[in-house]
Amino acid sequence: MTFEIIKQQFGELTEYVVQDTRNGNRFAVVPELGAVVRQLSLRKGLTLFSILKTPPTPDKLKEDTQSASELLFPFASRIPSGKYHFLGKDYQLHKNEKGGVNAIHGLVRKHHFSLQEQRIQPDNASIKLAYHLSQQEGYPFEVLFSVTYSLNLDGIFSLSYQAHNLGKDACPAMFGWHPYFDLGNEEVDAWKINIPSKTIVTFDDHMIPTGEAPFPHRGAFSLLRNELDNCFVVESEGNTAITELISDNQEVTLEIKQETGEGKFNYLVVYTPPSRDCVAIEPLTANVDAFNNGEGLNIIGPDQQIAGTITLKLR
């Protein structure tokens, strides 16, 4: 068969590797650490690119505080002081950001996901994992959160999430993925980026939204001497939007496609770390602090579901 799924050890952790045996396209997922995608390799021509920047050892992956490639649910980014108001009630989340000021990046990171399904078909292979959120501090709702990762014959990697409200009350929810992308042995200054947006979210000194402003760049622009740590309101064509990370020297472009439209991925965070060796490109279903400002926030009714898909490919 073209595809195979291998269960193997990564130190004391267990990971599942899904790969295309023809060309080496592959990804590795660690269920015990929030179903994080630890490794993703995609081929362009003769070169197999390892496009995710993640901690290289099991211990460093466990200790990672930068949320590399992590799944962020039921909220992403910051909630100031961990406080929010929803349907007439006040809630207090655990303030887990460094310094103990804000709540950040949700409640499923580093938790042990259960394996729901492995599937190998002639044109793709996939793995589905889930985590049951129930009566968490500051989030007294019951939600089954699941993610399906897949790889197809055309070298397209996809991440599809689903959140099913199992409780009796409506609950707030947003989802984001937090990958850091790498293209070969180049630094950020060698790359260009094309961000599908005309509008940037303005932040205060604590990275909390204050409003919006025009985004001046149109089309691809160089990251040379450009530092980004911004949230964007996505402009879409049809029901998708595409961010491009471009290496002209290597003649390769990474496309990050996110579903858009009602309840989908209508926001995007882009961050260039001080190391300048990768770029975080993070599709979000809602704005930063959406639990308070409501911008893009999904409200899931009892026994209702939300879902969305992000895809990656090289060209």
UniProtKB/TrEMBL annotation:
CDD domains: Aldose_epim. It comes from the Bacteria. Keywords: Calcium. Its cofactor is Ca(2+). It holds the Pfam family Aldose_epim. GO terms for molecular function: aldose 1-epimerase activity; carbohydrate binding. The keyword Protein transport does not apply. GO terms for biological process: galactose catabolic process via UDP-galactose, Leloir pathway; glucose metabolic process. InterPro entries: Aldose_1/G6P_1-epimerase (IPR008183), Gal_mutarotase_sf_dom (IPR011013), GH-type_carb-bd (IPR014718). Monomer. This is Aldose 1-epimerase.
